[in-house]
Amino acid sequence: MASPTDIVNQAFSLMGDRRINDIDEETEDSRLAKVFYEQVRDELEAWPSVDWNFAKARADISAQVKDTPDLRWTYQYQLPTTLLRVINQVTTEEIVVPWVRESDLILSDQSTCFILYIQRITNTTKFPPLFVAALYKMLGSRFAKRISQDEKKSRELLQEFLEVDLPAASAANARESYLENEKGAPDPWASGR
User: Fold this and answer.
1) Angle between the 129-146 and 4-13 helix axes, to the nearest 10 degrees?
2) DSSP character at residue 145
3) Among the listed residues 115, 117, 65, 67, the one whose alpha carbon sits nearest the alpha carbon of residue 92
4) DSSP secondary structure code for residue 96 in this structure
């Protein structure tokens, strides 16, 4: 599997022969690459139209109840620190219930809080190959704009990411599961967005 350094070098290769030896080395290119890599990785993992299977997690955060919130909601729960995006809150019977995210909290009228969410994954061995392809294309678009100052190349790479790489990765992700509920009632973990 591709390491963060490999992914950065794939992105650099889209603009020519620029390379780094290690994303953690003390060079200007490596420092800049690391900042962009982590930001773009998190953006893609949290992409709103794709619930990446490798980044999905479930949690019972009922014990993380905070003080009673003001106004409409009865309960508020602390979200996990690795959370990038909440997909849904459900009851113990897996029924989707109303909720809202405010800051690092979920506000709800449920006395228990079970969530399905997208978590930050930093271990690149967990990334499927098509996710890696989408990641380095998106990263290449940022590098083209920031490092090479090439707006045209940046737009071309972003367009390719949006029209080719992201749809391919998303389609592969969608084929990695089958739920009986897909033929009938919506799956409570996946619906309600």
Assistant:
1) 60
2) H
3) 115
4) B
